[in-house]
Amino acid sequence: MKNKPIYTIFLWIYAFFYILAGCNHFLSTAVYYVIMPKWLPAPGFLIYISGVLEIIFGILLLFKKTRRLAAMLIILMLIAFMPAHIYMIQKAPFILGKILVTPFIAWARLPFQVFFISWAWYYYKKMV
Asked: Which positions make up the signal peptide (predicted)?
């Protein structure tokens, strides 16, 4: 691959993002309760299991043998997270930690989900 150093840097950034995001589920659990749709069962379990999965998928991205699997699992996970993003849009405005989540901010999160899905798709297709 021509841009191997750039590819590697962005791979590590992407993986590190998921590892940190997963850890945040344990450090800021209360924040996730606010954005968890009320119709989902066992919100505490879902918050912790999604954190564990984000950490595992982030680690799996770092290894060539598991990168493709990790990328597909991330895509599926991000799709599964869509109800939380839609719930945020419906709930806005609200306070999330110390941040006021306005309808604009809630809507602005959706393109980021598409971006993160595309980023994972890149690693799924490239398998480098």
From this structure: none
Q: Residue 50 in contact with residue 25, Cβ under 8 Å?
A: yes
pTM, rounded to two decimals: 0.89
CA distance 24 to 36: 15
Burial environment of residue 71 by CB neighbours within 10 A (0 to 12, 13 to 18, 19 or more)? buried
User: Which residues share a beta bridge with 94?
Assistant: 101
Give one word for 92, left, alpha or beta, with left for phi > 0 and alpha for psi -120 to 50.
beta
- Rounded distance, CA 14 to CA 128, Å? 15
Separation between Cα atoms, residue 34 and residue 123, nearest integer Å: 32
Q: Which tokens in the block code for residue 60?
A: 């799996």
Q: Is the bond leading into 83 cis (omega within 30 degrees of zero)?
A: no
d(CA 126, CA 124): 6
Q: Where are the beta strands (DSSP E) in the chain?
A: 94-96, 99-101
